[in-house]
Write a structure and sequence with these properties.
The structure is a homodimer of 239-residue chains.
Chain A lengths: L10 H6 L3 E12 L8 E8 L9 E2 L2 E3 L6 H13 L7 E6 L9 E9 L14 E5 L10 H15 L2 H8 L6 H12 L5 H10 L3 E8 L6 E6 L16
Parallel strand pairs in A: 1-6
Antiparallel strand pairs in A: 1-2, 1-4, 2-3, 2-7, 5-6, 8-9
Chain lengths: 239, 239
């Protein structure tokens, strides 16, 4: 941005070499199938209705409009393609390999976690379906790589408070929090170790309420508001 | 990317609304002035030789070429403007506010830490100077905001091993590591607390060598190779 390198000699040269900017969004949520004891990490995909990759599934997204910010474009294109409107989208990474699309496209990818009750809207949209994150089909463009990267970031970054805030109701049992962590990590966790770590993290706080039912009463926890989304950082003022 | 929204009706419409992609890079290093006891966090800036913001200082960078990846563009434009060639650049964030430039430009920003001995090249380049990160002038575009965000990320992310690897020689004393941490955080740290935390982090390992000189001998440490740059993640295969 400080020096123009190999500037196009004319407008037509610019058109020949134009790089377009798109936004795509990875939305993770949880589904519990009737026959499953544990929830599964799922994400919504959109079936493409035009070339390239017509008929293939792809991440929700669209082109950046010249009059909107990246954040606004991510929210708009997600709503237009899936009907989903998460309260907060976080920028994940910009993907810009030369051969990731037949034309040159740089995709700014956003991501969000959605609680199961927030994830209902997308079901009604045409050409939208939820997929198990662990068993995706071959997606359009480099979208399998993008989902793989998002999963890696989720596994590395997601602390207890972020998971609880993003994927669980306001109050939850330690067993529910552990099941969510197991769905993200793709492996079982020892209940006693998990309890010790979660309670010691400072990210969740116990309430005086209990969940009762067929099992013995289980204490309900809340996430600690003090540490919620602490890694948004100074950019939060832009939203 | 999955649906074309408000697609340009013709090529000329595309030219009118074209969004261009640039890359910029924030390079942090350390300088110890002759009269200072502690090192200071510094970064190289390039004086702009054309409009917009002619004469102002800006982050090194340039336009994305249609035939190169984002990573390659970041390395190339940094080398062309400053002569610096860090072994590893990490993508930081994409900045795309509508009014950040007179024309519509999305900047993919990279960052890197540079050891003092690696930072020498830039001094010889025309229109390049190193600035104290804490006392920058008013920069071109939104580059003050970008540096502020990079500093915030550095303060939050930089663990002991990353700091040691990025800003110190292969072997260093705990006092040197503490001084670097103080430069990044912008405040003094208690030596005893710092020693305990650094040794307990697992990110650095003691050697059997000592630094001798005017003070009493101080043990030399190395960063722990096992945790080095662990947050590169699966994208490392792309480099």
């Amino acid at each position: 941005m400080t020096r123009t390198v190999a500037a196009p000699a004319s407008t037509s040269a610019l058109v020949d070499e134009v790089t377009r900017v798109a936004v795509s969004t990875v939305i993770f949520s949880l589904r519990r199938r009737p026959d499953d004891t544990c929830p599964t990490l799922v994400l919504p995909l959109v079936r493409r209705t035009r070339d390239p990759f017509e008929g293939d599934w792809a991440l929700p997204g669209g082109w950046l409009d010249a009059s909107e910010s990246l954040d606004a474009a991510a929210s708009r294109t997600l709503a237009e393609t899936t009907g989903l409107m998460p309260s907060y989208l976080e920028q994940l990474y910009a993907f810009g390999d030369v051969d990731r699309s037949p034309t040159r496209v740089v995709s700014i990818v956003y991501w969000a976690l959605l609680r199961p009750d927030e994830a209902i809207g997308a079901a009604a949209e045409e050409n939208v379906a939820w997929f198990d994150a662990a068993t995706l089909p071959r997606l359009a463009f480099d979208h399998n790589d993008i989902v793989e990267y998002a999963l890696w970031r989720l596994r590395n970054k997601a602390g207890y408070s972020r998971i609880a805030h993003g994927l669980l109701a306001d109050e939850f049992t330690l067993a529910e929090l552990r099941e969510v962590s197991e769905a993200i990590l793709g492996r079982r966790l020892d209940p006693a170790n998990f309890r010790r770590q979660a309670e010691g993290s400072g990210a969740i706080t116990p309430t005086e309420r209990f969940r009762t039912g067929s099992h013995r009463p289980a204490r309900l926890y809340r996430y600690n508001q003090d540490v919620e989304l602490a890694d948004r950082g100074p950019l939060v003022i832009r939203h």
